[in-house]
Specification:
By secondary structure, the protein is α+β, with helices and mostly antiparallel strands. It has 3 domains: 112 residues, Butyryl-Coa Dehydrogenase, subunit A, domain 1; 122 residues, Butyryl-CoA Dehydrogenase, subunit A, domain 2 (Beta Barrel), CATH 2.40.110.10; 142 residues, Butyryl-CoA Dehydrogenase, subunit A, domain 3 (Up-down Bundle), CATH 1.20.140. The chain has 11 helices and 9 strands. The chain has a 4-stranded antiparallel β-sheet, with no helix packed on it. Helix 3 packs antiparallel against helix 4. The structure holds flavin-adenine dinucleotide. The site of flavin-adenine dinucleotide has 21 residues, from strand 3, helix 10 and helix 11.
């Protein structure tokens, strides 16, 4: 197993590092303080897009570099170290593009990928969650029966689908140009068979944005409600051209390491800040890093970060070899989320009263780490899904560990 980056990966990592330092760092704290409705950094999106950061996972024939999981991890590690929101603004596009790249028909690729490629402000969203469908919108652990889970309906009418429903908590809801919606095409079937993916451009009549959510973290990365009222799209917008949940192909190509990569980057930022603070702040006649309990906290944080990063690189490496190992990816998600939240809280405490001052980045790290714990599925549901995978591996006589 070789974790050495290639020359091309190193070049992209350096580009991301410079972009983060020069373009994100100067605005990160002010974006965090602004209201959720006013703080979307369109200029940053345009600048990043010109450098290829918006379209990193598009295959070369569609104008990207087809970045694999390791390359994505290296870029997130740089961007999210400086600001998680700005990093997510770009990385959400990479994972959302994958639905069309891995799950779309040739006609859908021809129709949608050039739109993504050619417009510096073209962003994507993947609306699944609804007021009544949270963890049970997914099939990792649940397979919600008829009447539960996703209720946004898509009814076939000749050569069109008519869609009605309401989504909420949707990342890039108010900023995306293209949505990949999860809709119920068969209300008599469970989610695994009755839910399909529908590609719906934002400017389709009947699509509107409801409330924009005001959150404690990820302040510059917007989420909103999306309302669908008698929205009509041609049957050609059914992703993959067939009804039913997408195969795990779309989970590959980096999607499963996206959240833990952000968690570890923000934890690393928190630890760097805490070591610098503890190495300068004096109490009781010595710098506080020399007080045993502070030293032990910092050593524990360091250990958690190294362990989390080792898991992450291994999960990303596995993804590039044979497609994501779903059990390993879920374990990575769980570990990195819990570790990051613990590290961000421990390091905040090391700052004493300064830890809760709004002008200090350390409190932002904790808010971002907590928000991330809810942005995808929760780690509690990840644990249930992991145990389910373990059970099925055991029943199939497969080794538990990949
Ligand atoms: C910042 C942010 C960004 C988001 N972006 C998107 C997006 O782009 N697209 C999208 O579709 N969704 C998005 N979401 C929604 C997110 O996926 C959901 O919030 C998440 O899946 C949990 O759903 P819920 O909030 O309805 O909680 P619920 O599913 O109602 O869960 C509530 C609590 O119950 C627990 N729980 C649930 N089932 C069990 C069980 N069987 N055993 C034990 N505990 C259980 C959960 O862990 C949780 O603690 C986003 C959310 C946030 C906060």
């Amino acid at each position: 197993m070789d974790f050495e980056l290639t020359e091309e990966q190193r070049a992209i990592q350096n580009l991301a590092c410079e972009f983060a330092r020069n373009e994100i760092q100067p605005i990160a704290m002010s974006l965090d303080l602004a209201s959720a409705k006013e703080n979307f950094p369109w200029e940053l999106v345009k600048k990043g897009s010109k450098l290829g950061l918006r379209t990193l996972t598009l295959p070369p024939e569609w104008g990207g570099i087809g970045a694999d999981a390791i390359t994505q991890l290296a870029v997130i590690d740089e961007l999210a170290y400086v600001d998680v929101s700005c990093s997510k603004i770009f990385s959400k596009n990479w994972t959302a593009c994958r639905y069309i790249i891995a799950g779309g028909t040739e006609e859908q690729k021809e129709r949608f990928l050039p739109l993504i490629r050619d417009n510096d402000t073209y962003l994507l969203a993947t609306p699944g969650t609804e007021p009544g469908a949270g963890a049970d919108k997914d099939t990792g652990y649940y397979d919600a029966p008829p009447g539960e889970g996703i209720m946004t309906s898509a009814k076939r009418k000749g050569d069109r689908y008519v869609i009605n429903g309401r989504k909420h908590f949707i990342s890039h809801g108010p900023t995306a140009s293209l949505y990949i919606f999860r809709v119920r095409t068969d209300p008599s079937a469970p989610v695994s068979k009755g839910v399909s993916y529908m590609v719906i451009p934002r400017d389709t009549p009947g699509v509107s944005i409801g409330a924009i959510h005001d959150k404690i973290g990820w302040r510059a990365y917007p989420q909103s409600e999306i309302i669908l009222e008698n929205v009509e799209v041609p049957v050609e917008n059914l992703l993959g051209g067939k009804e039913g949940y997408l195969n795990p192909g779309v989970a590959r190509g980096g999607r499963m390491i996206e959240v833990p990569a952000h968690q570890m980057a923000v934890a690393r930022a928190a630890l760097d800040a805490a070591v610098a603070y503890a190495g300068g702040r004096r109490q009781g006649g010595k710098i506080i890093i020399q007080h045993q309990s502070v030293a032990q906290d910092l050593a524990e944080c360091y250990t958690l970060i190294e362990a989390g990063r080792a898991l992450l690189w291994r999960a990303a490496w596995a993804d590039t070899q044979k497609g994501a190992d779903r059990a390993l990816s879920r374990a990575t998600h769980i570990f990195c989320t819990e570790a990051s939240q613990k590290i961000c809280l421990t390091t905040l405490r090391i700052f004493g009263g300064y830890g809760v001052m709004r002008e200090m980045p350390i409190q932002k790290y904790l808010r971002d780490a907590l928000t991330m714990g809810h942005g995808e599925s929760t780690e509690r549901v990840q644990k249930l899904a992991l145990a389910k995978l373990m059970e099925s591996r055991f029943k199939a006589g497969m080794p538990l560990l990949g």
